[in-house]
Amino acid sequence: MKAGRYFREWFSFSRSEKNGIVILLVLILLVSFMHLFKGYFISDKVNDFTEFETQITKMEWELKNASQKQQQTEGNDTIVLFEFDPNTVSAADFEKLGFSRKQAETLMKYRDKKGKFYKKEDFRKLFFVNDSVYAACEPYICIETEDEVQNNKETRSFVKENKPAILVELNSADTNLLVELPGIGPAFSRRIVKYRERLGGFSSPLQLMEVYGFTQEMYDQLKEQVYVNPSLITRINVNTVTFRDLIRHPYMTKEKVIRILDFREVMKRINNMDELVKNKIIDPEDSEKLNPYFGFDQ
């Protein structure tokens, strides 16, 4: 009985004491809970969003690029005009003139079936060339006459042995100087100058082989008499160039131009050629060809 009395004396609490014990237990449980689960609510790590932002930028570019695919395959409403011969123009250059890929294929099939354009008006034979399209293209159509074709064949067949050998800088020579080279007549001299203007200048004499109709035999005849001054090349500022100006370059296609301009819009600035290659905007082979012509000024 005495032990029971002592027990009640020590472990009997008043109402206020009981309330205090309950509050204390609740606080202990809260502190324990916070200690156990603080890792879920409080983080000492400083989050680095650099990689996340990079991925977002990449996704934005890819989405925008995907939105252009339909336009790439069906053509562009913007017509970029330059001199062309419908008998010799390539499918890629025909697309640059603003025609669709399907229309370019139609032209190639017409020529494959021995179709020929003898005068400017014949360009209307193509079903997709209406009056308004012809009116826009007519000043730029340059059809080589039969006399010029024959003259080119005769010119390629002999070397001008009766004239002394001269050294010609290809980026500054005019047509009068170019015809002094072996194997080059008036028609080819005009082609060389026109192609040089589209390029922005020659970076290598070997680029003469890119001129329509220019053969290895012709190049071998004059390769010792020509050289280039790279400082005369007109560079393209990739950070400010427009679609219309960039598509004119012979090494550009609509797909490449759209990819470059879309990438520039997302990144705000392109610093060098390596960025275009690293992000697979252009391939390494294109990089080598375009390097003399691309600049990256602000």
Give a concise summary:
By secondary structure, the protein is mainly α. Helices cover 51% and strands 3% of the residues.
Topology of this protein?
Layout (H helix, E strand, L loop, with lengths): L1 H10 L3 H27 L8 H18 L1 H6 L16 H6 L4 H12 L18 H7 L8 H11 L11 E2 L5 H4 L7 H14 L16 H7 L3 E2 L8 E2 L5 H4 L7 H14 L5 H6 L5 H7 L3 E2 L3
Helix pairs in contact: 3-13
Describe the structure.
This protein starts with a helix and ends with a strand. About 5% of the residues have low confidence. 51% of the residues lie in helices and 3% in strands. The chain is elongated and about 130 Å long. The chain folds into three domains: 94 residues; 65 residues; 87 residues, AF1531-like domain (DNA polymerase, domain 1, Orthogonal Bundle). Strands 1-2 form a two-stranded parallel sheet. Strands 3-4 form a two-stranded parallel sheet. By secondary structure, it is an all-alpha fold. α3 packs antiparallel against α13.
